[in-house]
Amino acid sequence: MAIIVIGGMIGAGKTSVAELVANALGTEVFYENVDDNDILPLFYTASEEEQEAKRYPFLLQLEFLSSRFKNIKDALINQNNVLDRSIYEDWYFCKINNKLGRISDTEFKIYEKLLNNMMEELEELPKKSPDLMVYLTGSFDTILHRIGLRGREFEQDQGLMDYYHTLWSGYDDWVENYYHASQVLVINIDEFDVVNRPEDADRLIKMVENKLVEMNIETSVY
């Protein structure tokens, strides 16, 4: 039984990698709630005044936390599942928005209390955490290029560049020094294009396979 989370910046290609790994494992992907998330476009497009009045950043983090908690509960009771981003990364996004003043200190404390209560509930499940994070890292230019390629209009505003850069600049440090839920396999997306180069897709799956073997976890990978 292997539970794998795919982590990384906005636009890093998590969904493509999650589907690739899940297909190799013959299992299911638990997706990040983007298409049915009414708050997400508002988070990107609302003015600062609207953000302040409506508290969209805080509401968005609660929405993601709720959907992520459901996903992780479902994934942890089944075999060989893949999560498109982890509940642990939600904390990082919330902290960055707190640092930027978009989420107040009081809201952040409430968020942490709720997250901690949710994580305590996981103690009732057969597994308490994922086995492996496949972490997608890369240059800021690559991130921006891929955000552009996927074409979500609300993500393209030039005013978002500072926000993206703040998230990106601290992500590697958070994974290296603060993420302790599982082992980590780092994939440099400057060197991998699993969508357009089949050889890169095969190479990534082989790296995941080797890592799981190293961890003494049996799966159905190839």
**In whole angstroms, how far apart are the ends?**
15 Å
Percent range for β-strand residues: 5-15%
CATH structural fold name: Rossmann fold
Regions with pLDDT < 50 over 5+ consecutive residues? none
Helix proportion range: 40-55%
Placed side by side, the strands forming the largest sheet appear as 2-3-1-4-5
**SS element count, helices:** 9
CATH class categorisation: Alpha Beta
According to CATH, the homologous superfamily is P-loop containing nucleotide triphosphate hydrolases
Q: Can you tell me the overall shape?
A: globular
- How many E strands? 5
Tell me the number of structural domains: 1
Largest sheet: 5 strands, parallel
Average of pLDDT: 87
Radius of gyration: 17 Å
Write the H/E string, N to C: EHEHHHEHHEHHEH
Helix/strand/pairing class, anyone?
alpha/beta
CATH architecture: 3-Layer(aba) Sandwich
Binding site for substrate: 32, 44, 61, 85, 90, 155
GO molecular function: ATP binding; deoxynucleoside kinase activity
InterPro entries: DCK/DGK, Deoxyribonucleoside_kinase, DNK_dom, P-loop_NTPase
Keywords: ATP-binding, Kinase, Nucleotide-binding, Transferase
Describe it:
This protein is α/β, with parallel strands linked by helices. The protein has a single domain, classed as Rossmann fold. The chain contains 9 helices and 5 strands. It has a 5-stranded parallel beta sheet, sandwiched between helices. α2 (39-45) packs antiparallel against α4, α4 packs antiparallel against α5 (87-99) and α4 runs parallel beside α6 (105-121). The chain starts with a strand and ends in an 8-residue tail after the last helix. The model has no long low-confidence stretch (mean pLDDT 87).
